[in-house]
Every structure is written in structure tokens, then in C-alpha cells.
Amino acid sequence: MRLYEHEAKRVFQRRGLPVPKQFGVIHSPEELARLELEFPLMLKALVLVGGRGKAGGIKRAENAREARAEAREIFQLRIKGYPVEAILLEEALEADAACYIGVTMDPATFNNVVLASAFGGVEIEEVARDRPEAIHKLELLENEPELPAELARGLASRLAEDLGQAASAVETLAEIISKLYALYQAIDAKVCEINPLLLTPKGPVAADAKIVLDENALFRQAKLLEELGISGRRHDVAEPTPNERRAQAAGFKYLDLLPPEAPKDPEKIYVGLVPGGAGYGIFSIDEVANIGERFFGGRVVPFNFMDSGGGPTQEQMAEMFHLLMDDPRVDLIITSRFGGISSCDIFIRGLVQALRERHAQGKRVVPVYGRMVGTDLPSARDFLERAKEETPEALKEMEIIVGNQKIMAEVIKEGLSRAFAAKGWK
Fold first, then answer.
1. In this structure, are strands 300-302 and 269-274 parallel, antiparallel, or unpaired?
2. Could you name the CATH architecture of 97-228?
3. Structure pTM?
4. What's the pLDDT tens digit per position in 305-340?
5. What is the rounded distance in angstroms from the CA atom of residue 189 to the CA atom of residue 140?
6. Exposed e or buried b for every residue in 166-193, given b needs 16+ CB within 10 A?
């Protein structure tokens, strides 16, 4: 469950994390006249999705006239389809530098991860895509309730160096990192994030605050919810990733297991999954993770959940593979067609279509390894054999085992072995 920014900042304050001076929350431009304001100030749309800045939902006002005009414009916005019903008013700050600090959980290892980057105030997913080396990552293996001081200082030292800050800034940054991690643990959060943390002449200030609570642990956070005036579970809006929006438009179910901003570990294989159904999709995630742990030193990351449903079209099947191959983080695709509902013939025609289209257009092709067994298998097998004869070059990165002579665990292991061999890894 995601908190609004003003709620997250209240939580920050109680934990000793500095935030800008708050003037209040308004639900109409007319309410500005009732507040004691200081200028310049910031007007920030309160919505449970990201991208407010790009959508015009964050404005600076130098005086009351500008504040009224900006408030009217913001209240007319729909950000990613959601209307703006409230605006946070807070002091505007001048800063010497800005950075990013966040704490979350790695979905592949279930370890807590602290992230820091000198690129604050911008979309962290853009930094992860364009300059992954600019994000410092600290992974904790023991689910420590508090961050060890030496680890906090080490991360703060690297961040201060990137920011061009004096050595004296290290202790201050380390304190912020430690407090954010302790808060993350104390409130059963899935995400605690400051973006940006502004380094002002008076010290660091969390100009933005993001907290996402684990809904499965809300029963332990009754006091926190009561303090924030939240009764029960909030009807939350989860922000879909670009991949999830693309899948929704194409008409099939898809979930990213990694946030878009998560940097890719160059020492791991990221596996995209195109299974036959929801249950098989969950099995595929578990099996890829288990085999990666048992045989490949934990260097395997399941990338997504997908459910093609009972009757996808050939175009939908092709789009499933296009979507994963268009994401530069995916190294290998494991696919399967098993059972009596989904057609093997439609499945293989969609896969072949995607590979032929990408080859013809000079697009990136990700190796595909999998198995098919079930409905329409004879016609699917015949089509696959003809396709390999007709366009061998376009299909050279595809290996589909026909029939059930191998269990899926063996198929996954073989596919991963080939992916590791292709990178020259043991």
C-alpha cells in the first residue's frame, strides 16, 4: 500500500529524517487564502502514481497570484489517467547538489537492498538504463534490523565522492542512509525512497518521499495507520510499468518482477518467461529461481510473470516474445506450452512470427529455449519443421523440444547452461 507524499513525510519526520516545511494540503484553489504561506513555495499534486513532474504536477510559485494560477492548472490535470484531487504545499529549497537514496527488496534473492546515486531528482529508472554504473548497490544477506555503521559509511563515502562533496558530508549522508533503512525495517515497507535528497546550505532535506507498505504486514502497523488517519486498507493504485501497460494494451496478463529502475547485475542471467497459464507461470518463476540457486550459484534472475490465457491469438503470442526481447535486461527466454486448453499450433506460429519479424527488421533476438506438448501438437510439430527449413537463419536462436520426453526442470537447466556458455561463464 503506497502512502501519499505528505503522509510519507510525516513518517520521515517522526524518524528524524529532515523534510521541507509543510504549509498544508488543499483540495481547491480557494483554500489557499486560508493558509499562512511563505514564498517561494512548491505545489505538488498528490497522486499515487509517479511521473508528476513530467505531467506538470509539480510547480513553483513566487507569490500568491502565481500560487492560485498554478493550483488551478494542477487541479485540471489527469496524471496517468488519475485526476488530481489534492495538492501539497511546502517550502521551496535551494540546493548545492541532489542525490537519490532508496531501500527495497531484491525479488530474486529476497535480500534487502540499499541503493544510492548522485543522480537525484530524475527518474531513477532512466539512470539504471543509461548509466547503471552510477547506482551504488548494497545488498544485505541477514535481514539486519539496522544497517551496520561501517556499511552505511562506505555507501555514503562513495555517494559523497560522486557528488563532489567534502569528507565532512560522509557522516551526514551515512546518518540519512541508516535512518531510512531502519524506517524501512520498522514499518514493514516494500520501498522507502528519497528522490531527491537535496544538499542545502543548512543540511540535507528529503524533497520527495516515497513509502510503499507491505499489505501482508499491515496488521502489524495498526498504530502507524491510525496516526496517519488511514482506516483499514486503502484502495491503492499500483503504478504499472511500461511493460505492464504494453501487455495490458495487447490483452494478456503480465507483471514485472523487477522495478524498471532496478540496475541489471552484469554477473547474472535474466530470464524472461512465456508460460502457458497462470499456474504454470508461477511454477516457472519458482523453478527458474530454484535451478539457478542449485546449479548456477544464484546467478539467475526470473524477470516476469506472464499468463497467456486459454485462447491467445497468434498476434498476442508474437507480442509476448516481442515485449521481452525489446527489454535490454532479458538474456534468455524460457517458454512452455503444456496441457489441453492452449493450442501448441498457435503458440509456435506466434513465436516463429516474432523471430522472423525481428530478424527481418534487424532487431535484437534473445535466445528462446522451451518445450511444447498438448493440444494441436501434430500440426504444431509439422509447422515448426517446415519453418526451420524455410527460415533457418531467423530461427537459429530458438530451441523447442516437442513432446514430454523431458521434464520442464531439465529443459530450464539446459537453457540456462546454454546462456551461461554463450557468455563464457562456468
1. parallel
2. 2-Layer Sandwich (3.30)
3. 0.63
4. 998 876 889 999 999 999 999 999 999 999 998 766
5. 15
6. eeebbeebbbbbbbbbbbbbebbbbbbb
